[in-house]
Amino acid sequence: ALNGIPKIALAPLFLLFFGIGSWSKITIAMTGVAFVVFYNIYLGLRLRERELVEVVQVMGGRRHHVLGYVTIPTLAAPFFAALKTGGPLAILGVIGGEFIASSEGVGHELFTAAQNLDAASEFAGLIVLVVLTLALNGVLTALDGYALKRLGLAARRRPQSRS
User: Fold this and answer.
1) Is there a domain that residue 161 lies in?
2) What is the pLDDT of residues 60-108, one digit of tens each?
3) Partner of 122 at 20 to 30 A CA spacing, among 47, 83, 128, 161?
4) How many helices (H) and strands (E) does the chain have?
């Protein structure tokens, strides 16, 4: 039921509880991303292969071995997929919070430009949002590649034959 509520509809409540400052925007962003991350992690846990867990346990592995060798590598891809999906949702939440009540930020500037019918400023704000989203996606893609490489899950390159 909580996931069905549009997160932007909760923004006035967060503004009442946390004020006009940064914490209200952070809370709106976290609420928008929380369910995406939860569902991806939940599905990742369900996809964890029981046979691998049993093999680690048969070989004398304890819970931390199962966590380190089976669970975390299994959850790495769904976790980063959730972050890549949730990043734009977080930006949307922050912008929505700035629309409702803020004296600064890109959302405030977009709202002010729309009220003043200033198309140039509106498009400039949209370009800033696109660049911000692309930068966030680039950082998350780099972190994803690094984490998968560290966990040994990245696709191995074939050695190229020299001719």
Assistant:
1) no
2) 888 888 888 888 888 888 888 898 888 888 888 888 888 887 778 888 8
3) 83
4) 7, 0
pLDDT of residue 157: 40
Helix axes of 119-150 and 106-115: crossing angle, nearest 10 degrees = 160
Question: How many domains, the chain?
Answer: 1
Residue 163, pLDDT score: 46
Residue 163 forms part of a structural domain: no
Residue 35 maps to which CATH number? Answer: 1.10.3720.10
**Domain assignment of residue 129, given as a range:** 7-150
Report the C-alpha gap between 123 and 135 in whole angstroms.
18
Amino acid at 129: L
In a domain, 155, yes or no: no
Instruction: Scan for tokens 């977009």, then name that residue.
Output: 110
Q: Does residue 116 have a pLDDT over 60?
A: yes
pTM above 0.85, yes or no: no
Amino acid at 128: V
